[in-house]
Amino acid sequence: MSRLGYLPLGDHLAVSAEPLVRALVRIPPVRWLLNLFGRVTSGRGLVIAVPYGWLALFFLIPFLIVLKISFADQLIAQPPYSSLVDVAEQGYVTLKLNVGNYLFIAEDALYWKAYLRSMQISFFSALICLFIGYPMAYVMARAEPRWRGVLLMLVVLPFWTSFLLRVYAWIGLLNNNGVINNLLMAAGIIDQPIVMMRTNFAVYVGIVYSYLPFMILPLYATLEKMDLTLIEAAEDLGCRPLKAFMTITLPLSLPGIIAGFSLVFIPALGEFVIPDLLGGTETLMIGKVLWDEFFSNRAWPIASAVAIAMLSLVLVIMSFQHWLERRAEAAR
Amino acid sequence: MQEGRKPELEAIEPWKDPTAAPYILIQDVTRKFGDFMAVNNVSLNVYKQELFCLLGGSGCGKSTLLRMLAGFEEPTSGKIFIDGQDMAGIPPYRRPVNMMFQSYALFPHMTVQDNIAFGLKQDHKPKSEILERVASMLELVKLSSFAKRKPHQLSGGQRQRVALARSLVKEPKLLLLDEPLGALDRKLRESTQFELMNIQDKLGVTFMVVTHDQEEAMTLASRIGVMNLGQIVQVGTPSEIYEFPSSRFVADFIGTVNMFEGRIIDEDNDFVRIASEEAGCTIFINHGVAAPPNAHLCVAVRPEKITITHEAPAQTAENCAHGVIDGIAYMGDMSVFNVKLDSGKMVKVTRPNLIRHAEDAITWDQRVWLQWDPSSGVVLTT
User: Fold this and answer.
1) What is the pTM of this model?
2) A227, A237, A248, A332, best to mutate vs chain B, most B CBs in 10 Å
3) Which residues, 6+ apart, have CB-to-CB distance to B232 below 8 Å?
């Protein structure tokens, strides 16, 4: 639909630029680009562009790199994997996707056992966090307003020291000649040290301890904004306090429970430091397997495939969580 | 807005019968929060099937009194009896009392039906009975077609009715209503007022309403208890409270009133004369007053009891003031005149607009005469 305007200028035939530009703008790719440019350069667009750019640069691109490596062949080279795109002779470009890495981790029991164990440890850690965190969040939310800030501070306080340092501190506590064993032996309760270090127990302690604030904070947020007259109304209608908690408080805090559970479960799933420092050989968590593949075996493609598989797992869990949340919200 | 109660109900006045036993007995109840006296030595009798209104400004202690009846607060001292049963130490979930909360406090995760059924389920009633009673309640509040909705899918007025149904379904001995109409807009409030009264008539439940809205109290109540600073300052029927306020606070709180400071110059058993510089005349009242001669006191005259004229009345010595129109507020059904007396005192006078365009319309800056009946003035010593 482009129309060109001709202006008779003496003997010359001059083409006016304006209709040309208008015609150009109508071509879809140009239009889209201009739209995008217009949106990005508006104030709103700029504000959104910054976090999007950040995410693209530090999450999307690294993810694509990992995805690419997961489809590569392992090589003894620098870098230790093959390129996906080959420029062959006669100008042909070939794309080689190696699904062997995925087949390998699907076949080897080590990997799916590690996934299962990770899920198990994360699930029970999140559950323990819930049982410890719910009463704490409840007390905080029902405390006098002037105390709430202090209690909230105390929950967040551990973040002020290094995470690594705090995990190391647990070694000192749980060791065979650590604080706990020494105290128990000095008190004469035991005469042989209880083996706690390098066991699943130590891993649970480490994860629950480290992730507890992530459970408490969302729970506190939902419990704190709950209308307390609802409890009074329930009691007024003949409901005992414990039952009022079960029928009113608990269902209404479900969004907080789901949020807290995911905030513990998902990062714990890929946890490496805690099982590495506190766990033993029996603690086969996927984060540790990944680390071993990457650094000890220098098997970058396998490690990448493990990472992508874990990411897919997390995506499935997150969409399930999203579905749960939406249902909880619809139930309101 | 004084539509009043049905005549057959007005005939029932158990508080005048000395042999009638009060249904709710509040004895010297005090509630302290730290040093603050929220409720200060309140005693009150409420009779069966009454609709009693506790009326007062915010912080007067009316809500605390209500919460003590519900069991959410325990009195610091004093006793509460409901139907002869001492309520001390009885938790809310075991009291024969239900409450309709100001915020309605509907359970957001339950349907209308489940909200109403909640109380009955706590009593482990059989399922068929629960369904039946919930259905009849829904019918009573005209919400049968909304049974499956969630509270957030209802309008404010509908939520109010669900809250009412939920608190009534257990047939409590006493229903407490905390500002039941506070969250509704004016039109809805008026229609709901009458609905509330009809429901109370039908079920015969004793209602105790807390409100800060005097109009609401006047329309709803069989009796009103006016509260101030944690104490009940006057108890009476709406007309008693309005026509015979016992103190300046009550006179001022209920409706509008003109107060004239004065001094008794002549008195007997059946009349009193009060000289008032503020009014610029002698105020004659045709009933006796329990006050010493020469006492300084206050006479309250309601704006609608004063007539306003251009011409001087037959006698101008008593119950007659005169001044200049300072302001007029046209309200549609009536007009409010602000009259500035020669003493500088401002007086409010209302006059119904009986004729559309009165020939002798009173307008700004005119000199007018004010006059009232000897029975209109109320002497207030406190």
Assistant:
1) 0.80
2) A237
3) B42, B43, B44, B225, B226
